[in-house]
Automatic annotation (TrEMBL):
UniProt entry tagged with the keyword Glycosyltransferase: yes
Keyword GTP-binding on entry: no
Organism ancestry: Eukaryota, Fungi, Dikarya, Ascomycota, Pezizomycotina
GO biological process: proteolysis
Domain of life: Eukaryota
Keywords on record: Glycosyltransferase, Membrane, Transferase, Transmembrane, Transmembrane helix
Topology of the protein relative to the lipid bilayer: Multi-pass membrane protein
Gene3D superfamilies for this protein: Spore Coat Polysaccharide Biosynthesis Protein SpsA, Chain A
GO molecular function: aspartic-type endopeptidase activity; glycosyltransferase activity
GO CC annotations on file: membrane
Localisation per UniProt entry: Membrane
Name of this chain's protein: Glycosyltransferase 2-like domain-containing protein
Native species: Polyplosphaeria fusca
């Protein structure tokens, strides 16, 4: 934590006119500031220049390519798109079983008057962490803390609600009000983490404390955990002693605020209710996603968070998987969060994610071929299916940014060199240059609609069919935008961009 320093000047002893020797440090300081600003400017804008150059070069290249090479590129991009669409729809179909099982469990609990299998006195001890960066989340932290303390339905002698926060400067009376919560709620703990500059620092500090818990739940400050979410998660650990991580479903609750939030809300339903549980079933492994995740305390304290990674959550999830941890996705462990309301906030958030995924992919791609080390469960062996799942998740997903944008550049080159004069010519130009592309394109469209149909079946109460239709129509453009952000993340990684931009909260 940064501390301000007071600079005292003795005016009575200061000469009226500084000597040239005394002026030198001022010039050096000015030069240092100017140099620092120049360096920050270059670091900030170089990735944009690299991405712009990439698009310009690619469009120009296709504009001068022969018809034979254009046909080869076209075929490669369409086939790859077919694979990605096929894998996505398979994950979607695989998610049907976890969804049915989640509904079955809820039905059984409802029939029993919401009596859970485990008696209260036999429940595991849980530390629930709410992690906050106060200047950014000072307007919402008290609301979320009170909600967690008052609404979460879990025996108070078995749970501790921990408010972990860092701030570069004191914020009063908020901090005093936060610490006063411990007087009113015996199961509250408020910790101002010293010398912290990130979420990873906050978490790692907490891991050094001996709290006696069996499990640790991690939540970002903007979340409202469902009152029964901790109970559902703990029941999963009790039912299966080999479960190491339970990742819940995150739902966007401000979906109606803007068109952007509605798009993100549909995307989150597609990711958390369809893709994650489907991938876990299909490839044999799940992932902790940063928030609404429950860990066995011993594992999390052993792994800690790597503060050098922009997405320390994904890194920790992959490190856990590398040791053979078992992560399950439970759709009943729900939490409600805010989506960025402005494009600027969305852009900063997704660029951080893109660069973080690029970092994590580069570090953990070795899981495709290496042997597990320090395994958590006896006789664990990484199967071929799991290894191919890692290949698909890390390398193929990262390379898909180039395939999507290259296809976009190819279409742009067509528009430049063979500009259509009517809609029919445009349709034929973009999609049906070659006979095989008709089938590949149509199958990809069917896969997309099948995935969105399954998403519609499990959509949250904050999502309307109108939002899903809008998402479907605009998805190709959204996909290109996300691929461009992926490239931008790669470019930032190349120039070693290291600024951490927290997501704006309101």
């Amino acid at each position: 934590m940064s501390e301000s320093k007071d600079f005292v000047v003795n005016i009575g002893e200061a000469p009226a006119y500084p000597s040239s020797a005394e002026k030198a440090p001022k010039k050096s300081l000015f030069d240092g500031i100017t140099s620092g600003k120049a360096s920050a400017f270059i670091s900030e804008w170089t990735p944009m220049g690299l991405v712009a150059s990439y698009f310009i070069f690619s469009v120009c290249l296709y504009s001068f390519c022969s018809e034979r090479w254009i046909a080869i590129f076209w075929f490669i991009y369409m086939c790859t798109n077919f694979y990605i669409a096929g894998a996505t729809v398979l994950e979607a179909f695989m998610s049907i079983t976890p969804c049915r099982e989640a509904r079955k469990v809820v039905t059984q609990a409802e029939e029993k008057g919401w009596l859970f299998p485990t008696p209260n006195d036999q429940l595991l001890i849980l530390d629930l962490l709410i992690v906050a960066y106060l200047p950014n989340e000072k307007d919402i932290i008290m609301d979320r803390a009170l909600y967690a303390l008052e609404q979460i339905d879990y025996p108070s002698d078995k749970i501790r609600i921990n408010i972990l926060y860092n701030t570069p400067k004191p914020i009063e009376p908020l901090e005093s009000e936060l610490h006063a919560l411990t007087d009113k709620f015996p199961h509250a703990r408020v910790i101002k983490v010293p010398n912290s500059t990130s979420k990873a620092d906050n978490l790692n500090y907490f891991f050094t404390l001996d709290t006696g818990s069996d499990l640790i739940a991690i939540y970002d400050c903007d979340h409202y955990p469902h009152p029964n979410a901790p109970r559902w998660a703990v029941e999963r650990f009790i039912a299966d002693k080999e479960t190491d991580i339970v990742q819940g479903r995150c739902i966007i609750f401000n979906s109606e605020e803007t068109l952007l939030t509605s798009m993100i809300a549909v995307e989150f339903d597609k990711i958390y209710a369809v893709s994650h549980p489907g991938r876990a079933t299909m490839w044999g492994f799940g992932l902790f996603c940063g928030s609404n995740g429950y860990w066995r305390t011993s594992l999390l304290r052993d792994l800690k968070m790597n503060g050098d990674m922009l997405t320390e959550d994904i890194d920790s999830a992959l490190r856990a998987f590398s040791r053979g941890s078992k992560t399950v996705h439970d759709l009943n462990v729900t939490s409600f969060e805010l989506a960025p309301t402005t494009f600027q906030a969305f852009w900063k958030q997704r660029l951080r994610w893109a660069q973080g995924w690029a970092q994590a992919s580069a570090v953990h791609a070795k899981m495709i071929y290496n042997q597990p080390q320090n395994v958590l469960h006896e006789n664990y062996n990484r199967t071929f299916t799991a290894r191919f799942g890692v290949l698909s998740l890390l390398l193929i997903r990262e390379s898909s940014y180039y395939l999507v944008t290259q296809y976009t550049c190819l279409v742009l080159s067509f528009l430049i060199t063979k500009f259509p004069t009517n809609g029919a010519e445009l349709w034929k130009l973009v999609y049906f240059q070659y006979p095989v592309s008709q089938w590949l394109f149509l199958i990809s469209i069917i896969c997309l609609f099948a995935t969105l149909w399954i998403t519609n079946q499990v959509k949250s109460e904050f999502i309307s069919r109108k939002m899903i239709v809008f998402f479907s129509v605009t998805y190709p453009f959204y996909l290109v935008l996300m691929a461009t952000m992926g490239l931008y993340g790669h470019a930032r990684q190349v120039v070693k961009y290291s600024s951490w931009n927290p997501t704006a909260r309101s």
